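Support case: adenosine monophosphate complex. Customer-provided input:
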Amino acid sequence: MVYDNNNIFAKILRGELPCIKVFEDDRTLAFMDIMPQADGHVLIIPKEPAVTLLDLSEEGAVAAIRTTRRIAIAVKKALGVEGIHVAQLNGAAAGQTVPHIHFHVIPHAAGTVLRMHAAERADENSLKAMAERIKACLD
Ligand code: AMP
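Agent response - structure generated as follows:
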């Protein structure tokens, strides 16, 4: 799929738009979702320009899932929830709204319902505080 260099996550990767960073290494970046489906919702993106998982190199996929797993462990520890929801949408038909591949890590407490996808913007200070809690739980 043709990659749009001006998508939101490409701009975040270039530092042209801000993000609330949780983790970064040479291949991946993890940051808070600004419209979280639950408190502690983190996005993980490979730095490689790829629209979907199907466009991503095998090395990029390995790096992305490694970081996703690491973030999921930290989110579970930070939030103390029973479940962690990992989601990854490929193509607008599947509900993908930002055309740069990303993984969602969403804490899911027992008996709760996740909020609507990309619906309501969270308070910036709360997101920053949550990022600090998750960072403190990274191994
Ligand atoms: P998807 O629909 O799977 O493509 O998910 C895109 C996600 O990106 C949604 O959960 C949005 O809330 C989130 N999002 C959109 N813009 C930003 C942004 N500037 N910073 C952080 N998250 C964003």
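Residues 92 and 98 are 9 Å apart (CA to CA).

Case will auto-close in a few days if no follow-up is received.
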